[in-house]
Design brief:
Elements: H1 5-8, H2 17-26, H3 31-39, H4 43-54
Helix pairs in contact: 2-3, 2-4
Length: about 80
């Protein structure tokens, strides 16, 4: 995957850019790993993405991850 592909095609993934950036951060910048996380995240990866998003102070209900609008945010 070319550099920047994962974020560049974010709109076609129907995923918030903030979520894509957090996924890429969890993947340590590796877009192949980021793609796999986006498609089939582990519980630990989902939590790591969630933790990154919590640092910006935005209500988590404003984010979306995928076309189905999966309820991806961990439950308290």
């Amino acid at each position: 995957m070319t550099n920047g592909h994962f974020i560049k095609f974010g709109l076609s993934r129907e995923t918030s850019q903030e979520v894509l950036e957090a996924i890429l951060q969890v993947a340590a910048g590796n877009e192949t790993v980021a793609e796999r996380i986006w498609e089939t995240p582990t519980a630990a990866e989902t939590l790591a993405v969630w933790n990154i998003l919590q640092t910006n102070g935005t209500d988590e209900s404003g984010y979306h991850w995928g076309a189905e609008g999966i309820n991806w945010a961990p439950k308290a």
